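TL;DR need structure tokens for one chain.
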Amino acid sequence: MSIDPAQLYRDLGTTPVINASGNMTVLGGSRVSPRVQEAMVTANRHFVSMNDLQRATGERIAELLGAEAAFVTPGCGAALGLSSAACMSVGDPQRMEQLPNVDGIPNRFLFQARQHYHYERCLTIFGGQVLIVGNERGTSEEQLEDAITEQTAAIHYYASGDPDDTIQHLSDLQRIADRHSLPITVDAAYQVYPLGTMKDYAQSANCLIGFGAKYIGACNSTGILAGRKDLVEAAYQHSFIGFETGDYETVGRPLKLDRQEIVAVVVALEEWLEMDHGARIAEHWRRTDYIEDRLKDIPNLSTSRLVEDNSLSNGVLLTLDEGALGKKAPDVIEELKQGDPIVWTRGRENNIRIAVAHLVEDEIDIVIDRFRKALL
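>> reply
TL;DR here they are.
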């Protein structure tokens, strides 16, 4: 007997969502492809040594990305947390078992003030401490140099993709870190396209790089940690399977994965690297043009293409004349969340973004109709 997808959620006491926002953790991350879904079902048939699976798939991911080493993590946040544990304890079994008690352990992660963001918290869960360097006007090389002490474990870099000449970029940090024999942790969660960008980050020298696998079509709960081999191995020893099979009482046991999730990441990465991204993006613009055409007659509203460098949330940008409309963009966004199904979008100031990547065909007209009702 087939199950109605929307009714499944209603029967569980919640409301299905049409995702016009893009890859968002709070909405479930991504929609896995038929190929990934089939691989997960197939993986469910047999049990496997999780240590063997993690090792083998890590080697495959490293090969695909050109990295020294890699393995699957339960999200990019976990990759950052395990990276911090690795930087604080690499090569020292006593420190590995002492964490999260950091007495006598270098535990400071230098962070540029203008990169101050929500997810830096991930570096602190195993005892790390974030030290903000510089101010809102930027961070200089000299300020970072002055901040390095015997308590410094690593320098952190948030790969936001936003141009900013007032900060030190990854190549600058690598030069500084090399002078002090420090590693670098990198949050490159959504730097998965262009493919060359993803591989460049994965191959960065002296770094531990975290990716969110939801951005390549794997499960919301998965990520990739790649980078310098000895650091990746140190992080692996702190992982759930490192705890279970290794010699030391490490910290990452709560960060467990299913075998199906691990398989999903490898298959999704293979699919992402093989994909015709030109065709994928062309489909974004087909949907975008259709939505724009259906909304362009609404008074006090202008539309344009929303183009993202990583192509993950391409779509339509709506700009509202809020005074003439008598409605503010945040009010419209909230109104769209009141129906069934919920339509979830994002916005800023007087703009609303309609990301099209995760809209299935029968949802596009629903989104259009709901916007027309809200704006007319």
